[in-house]
Amino acid sequence: MDLANLLTLLQAPMYFTWKMTLMMAAGGVLIYLAIVKDYEPLLLLPIGFGAILTNLPLTGIAGEEGLFGLLYRYGIQTELFPLLLFIGLGAMTDFGPLLENPRMALLGAAGHIGIFSTLIFALVLGFSISEAASIGAIGTMDGPTVIYVTSKLAPHMLAPIAVAAYSYMSLVPIIQPPIMRLLTTDEERKVRMSYTQKVVPKTTRVLFPIIVAIVVSLLAPVASPMIATLMFGNLMRESGVVDRLSRAAQNEIANVTTLFLGLTIGATMTGENFVRLDTFLIFVLGLCAFVLDMGGGVLFGKLLYVLSGKKFNPLLGAAGISAFPMSARVVQRMGQQYDFENFLLMHALGANTAGQLGSVMAGGILLALVKGTI
To answer: In the prediction, which pLDDT does 59 show?
Structure first.
């Protein structure tokens, strides 16, 4: 055993504490939710397992030279893991429904009001501006964006923020319907919207990621790594000439990165750092961000309903978030509960892809705002 490993073991806890035991139990709950309830299993399973391992005494696995320490140093501190996920996410996303119906971009903007409202709430509760911005990022409803923003602004809060974000993302089908019912009427939910599929030229599909990457990078340079990797993944998809790379980004690269990212997040869930009042407040504020995002989208949809002469279905506003394509499917399902022949899916997908793009831009705005105030 070399000196570095010996020092790591000596620095590791020598016995169980109640906080370590509690976090191991929390890891077991995450594994249960992943396996039994099928809640975001790709991330909750490795996060839960990592939480159990990191709280074992004497292993040194979470030390600087341990497995988790190395993954954190080279994957999170270098921002490599979230950026690799952005490439895969871009390769998976079809922006066609948004290009067919550009007005849905408005819903993608309205569906992120919770980010900045939550930032203000967090400041009132005493969090620093960097911490508040990281908590507000939960409202992007986009895992890679949350991790990227938090790793740059408040890395000490990465575990609770990431776990809150992915936990609530898995609960979108449960959280979203009550909000839609509360804010809309039966008449509004039954509005039918005609859909005529438009052929989006390949040239448009190819130019879209290039133009977006350039414009956003110029407007918010600090967001350039996020938008550039997302749009590069989409360019590979739409170009049609690098199918092997596109498939690898969607599958092998995304899967391996997700695996290591989940373990690394779980490894930061140590008892001493996680079992705190701040963690409880983060979960409460994260839920507020989700609810406000969805509510803001639906209320904006109601405004379009009025402006369109009651020809726009406000349920579509709930899809203006980044939970793609889960949120769009929830909107379609609810629309058909009130009118079986009402088909909102393609409209909802347009709003949902706008929300995906909007989440990255919102993350860039958060970084720009904080960098300008520190």
So the answer is: 73
φ and ψ at 141, to 5 degrees? 55, 35
Compute the mean pLDDT over every residue in the chain, rounded to the nearest whole number.
89
Report yes or no on 12 lying in a domain: no
CA angle in degrees (0–180, nearest 5) for 208-210-215: 95
* Cis previous bond, 325, omega within 30: yes
- Here the tokens at position 148 are 């990227």
Among the ranges given (238-242, 323-327, 369-373), the one the predictor scored with the smallest mean pLDDT: 369-373
Residue of 94, 92, 90, 85 whose CA lies nearest to 255 = 85
In the numeric block, which tokens belong to residue 372? 């300008």
Domain count within the chain: 1
56 inside domain? no
Q: Tokens 């005609």 identify what position?
A: 194
- In terms of residue numbers, what domain contains 241? 81-261+275-371
Residues 128-144 have a mean pLDDT of 93
In the structure, what pLDDT confidence band is assigned to residue 1 with cuts at 50, 70 and 90? very low
Count of other CB atoms within 10 angstroms of residue 127: 22
User: In angstroms, rounded to a whole number, what is the distance separating the alpha carbons of residues 235 and 248?
Assistant: 14
Dmax (CA) for the chain in angstroms is 75
8 A C-beta contact, residue 137 and residue 117: no
Average pLDDT score over residue span 290-302: 94
Report how far residue 240's alpha carbon sits from residue 226's, in angstroms, rounded to the nearest whole number.
22
- Whether the predicted pLDDT of 192 surpasses 80: yes
Q: Which amino acid would we find at residue 47? A: I
CB 50, CB 77: distance < 8 Å: no
Which structure tokens are listed for 203?
């040239």
Residue 109 lies in a domain: yes
Res 173 pLDDT > 80: yes
Model confidence at 58: pLDDT above 90? no
Which of 195, 129, 165 has the alpha carbon at shortest distance from 335?
A: 195
Cβ atoms of residues 8 and 64 within 8 Å: yes
In a domain, 65, yes or no: no
CA distances in angstroms from 361 to 3, 124, 201, 227, 318, listed in the order given:
45, 25, 25, 7, 19
